[in-house]
């Protein structure tokens, strides 16, 4: 067996673990796949014969990659949020026959359920160092000495980071709040699907009869703020935007469920949804670049 084939097979044995670590660190499957891809590229360039514990080495690398992403990640209108970069020619092993970066829906569902949307919201409030310390130690049982090596800090300092993160997580949303977030996601997912399919009847059923849609001046050519009232009016607008919905994705928007439109990875519009019961009662359409920069966003699998 060729060395490259052996290396690829060895990497495949650790892929699921690496994606799980990266997803919990980054809260986005797209970013997690980017981190795993980067980890494979680094492994392919390294001398693997000198690596005694390949699993530990890969976990450390993917954690460092994710840490760098957390430190630099600020979703802006002019910055990519999807997977637009394709400057590397080396492929992650196992990607043959499929588009690079295409996620496994079943695995996405397992990861999302195991982490929980409520916990993802809490993790997004942590500093990059706190998040890494908590995830690696508390969720993956990595010894503090090894976590400290990833962070470039002392073991005691790393323990303090994890302790601070642990306190925030313990004060995370109650089961009722977590359930509410899951319900919001179900409604938002159904709304996005109906918009993509141009299903006017389904949209009416998902919208409160008194729903209000507001949009800033950047949402329309006239530059004037938009305000629509009533399920039928808002549903017609959603049907007309069906093409845009095809390139849209569910996301956490400032800790609540929303939808973002980012063609070719360029963030252009965010829909912040207010869900009351099992219907959408308000939609805030955000396209102004300054407003977009101030949003805390985390992509979610459909």
Description of the structure:
With 302 residues, the protein is α+β, with helices and mostly antiparallel strands. The chain has 2 domains: 168 residues, PhyR, sigma-like (SL) domain (Butyryl-CoA Dehydrogenase, subunit A, domain 3); 125 residues, Nuclear Transport Factor 2, Chain: A (Roll). It is built from 13 helices and 7 strands. A hairpin with a 2-residue loop joins strand 5 and strand 6. Helix 1 packs antiparallel against helix 2 and helix 3 packs antiparallel against helix 6. The longest helix has 24 residues. The chain starts with a helix and ends with a strand.
Question: Summarize this, please?
Answer:
With 302 residues, the protein is of the alpha+beta class. 54% of the residues lie in helices and 15% in strands.
Reported CATH architecture of the largest domain? Up-down Bundle
Main β-sheet description:
7 strands, mixed
The end-to-end distance, rounded to whole angstroms, is 39 Å
| Uncertain parts | 74-92, 94-114
CATH fold title of the largest domain: Butyryl-CoA Dehydrogenase, subunit A, domain 3
CATH class of the largest domain: Mainly Alpha
Element pattern in H and E: HHHHHHHHHHEEHHEEEEHE
Number of domains: 2
Number of helices: 13
Instruction: Work out the radius of gyration.
Output: 21 Å
CATH superfamily of the largest domain: PhyR, sigma-like (SL) domain
What is the average per-residue confidence, as pLDDT, rounded to a whole number?
A: 81
**What is the helical fraction, as a range of percent?**
40-55%
C-alpha geometry: elongated
The structure class reads alpha+beta
The count of strands amounts to 7
